[in-house]
Fold:
Amino acid sequence: MTAKVSNKILIVDDEPDIALILKLHMEDAGYDTAWAQDGKMALEMLAEGGYSLVLLDIRMPRLGGVEVLRCIRESGSDVAVIMMTAHGNEDLAVECMKAGAIDYFPKPFALDDVLPRVQRAIAYRSALIERQRLEREKADFVSMLSHDLKNPITAVIGSIDIMREGRLGPVNIEQVEYLQAAIDSCNEVVDMIDNLLDINRFEAGKMQMNLRCYNPVEIVTAVANRFSKAAEYERISLNVDLSAAVPFVNVDRNAFTRIIANLLGNAVKFTPEGGGITITCQSIASGDISAAKIPAYVNIPEGFSRNRQFLLLSISDTGDGIPAEDLGRIFERFFQSPRSGRERGGAGLGLAYCRMAMEKMDGLIWAESELGNGSTFKLMLPGQDEDVTL
Ligand SMILES: Nc1ncnc2c1ncn2[C@@H]1O[C@H](COP(=O)(O)OP(=O)(O)O)[C@@H](O)[C@H]1O
Ligand SMILES: [Mg+2]
Structure:
């Protein structure tokens, strides 16, 4: 089939008078037309391509319209099909719609009724082709990101790391610092690409999660340790108090780790020198859910409140805070608060990833903040039955 969008209509009808009336009417409206007198001939003509719409009679010798419709759809052709049905045969018309016809009209027809249907069908088909083209472009872009961009950056990180370790000759402390800064920046780009790739997987319904029962304290502690250097470097105190007894949670270890890393990365990024970040956890019983003060914009999954207990994890910072009107929107992809976002880099994808991953794990995420008074990000997950006490 041709990729080019043409506006040629194939009229398929064994009655020459009807075909002629349709032909003249369509040509008056500016369409090119062709006529096939039966189903077999129609399929032969369609195989040559170039048609955007078929007006298809149902009752015909040699090969009936229903069969022709089936062959068209099986061939993978994107041509639009409108069925022409005998009066009183609406059930069959509905069957044809289910089988891939876009519309139908009864015979004898009113010409005034036919043209709008034809225009609608052609417009719908053009929109569909455009959407498919955009989807292909998006898929190409995403695969370009993962291969053509991520692989070389990973190679750059590897080379700089070898230098930083002094394996290519001695490096002084200042050089190590600069090389480390280069590695950190490259890693930021890799994280951004990973967020984008995963968001795309979530949206395509292709994200696989490997949910297992974990002690959240162990995972959060591991991520916090990773950030202690970065916080120290920015002269930000990182206080981790995970002593409260909390339940095990059912999460994908990799996703949960990346969620915490995104939140800590933001906290470090948006907190000025001398500030602090605090991580705490608590257990919430199902009767006390209202104490968690879940904001209205948070999508609560069905059956969420039937869990016996929950883990509530809080990551607070003493940064600039987030305006109240942006609190819901920061979880949308590409959204960055005009006050804080752009000038600190990033792409506005981290929190969108966090929200999608939390949803997939039946958990909630939200932010509480007051401008000038820091922000607190909260994660709430259904608890499993065993308790953890450290
Ligand atoms: N801890 C925080 N303090 C202040 N603003 C924040 C904080 N975390 C996130 N934000 C706001 O939310 C926006 C979206 O965050 P995110 O999705 O992680 O994207 P990015 O970090 O790439 O900007 C940020 O640009 C910022 O405006
Ligand atoms: Mg971020």
User: Anything to note?
Assistant: The radius of gyration is 30 Å.
